[in-house]
Amino acid sequence: QSRTFSKYAEEGQIDSEYSADSGLGFEAGLHYRFKPRLGAMLSFATASRDGSLSYSASVPHPLYLDQDRTISGTKDGLSHSETAFHLDFVYQIQSGGFEVLFFAGPSFVEVNTDVVSSLDYNDVYPYDEVSVTGVSLTEASDSAIGFNLGAGLDYRFGKSRQFGIGVQARYTTASLTVAPPAGPTIAITAGGFQAAAGLRLSFPDRGA
After folding, report:
1. Distance, CA of 149 to CA of 88 (rounded, Å)
2. CB 125 within 8 Å of CB 67
3. Reduced to 3 states, what is the DSSP secondary structure of residue 106?
4. Which of 10, 41, 80, 180 lies at a 20 to 30 A Cα distance from 138?
């Protein structure tokens, strides 16, 4: 993000770059098999991550024109959360208690994230240097349609094969544009690579 502000009858600028670390999340879904090897899956996923920020700014001088002071720094601990709904077509291969799944389809992704609203700083005479005293944040959000693809491996145990465990890898991507209350919009690529492990519960077809 690059935004401008007015100070001492001149225009200053703040350049910000954001990133999000890996984090933990939760996913739940329903998988319906309408053919021996074909099916559809609807999933809900949510995850929270710690974000970080690096910034640099040009601050106008109170006494001289065109002699901006520069400041830069970083800030950790920003909040970043993503929620997604996935609708996938599934191809599955089963052998005994093992089942391999390949899936792909559209995703609806919503992002809520902290962004910079302003920099707080001190400057004292002769005003040649500026020191940052704080970074003010505001929350911004957006949603968009993207896509996902992935694969999973399940193992079902017991006579009825009703219970099981599984591992799964999914890649999701969606392009969003969050609009802070003040300042220009920010382009975000949401999603990324996700790995999961969990429980499976099957409901047999009583008509089979």
Report:
1. 8
2. no
3. strand
4. 10
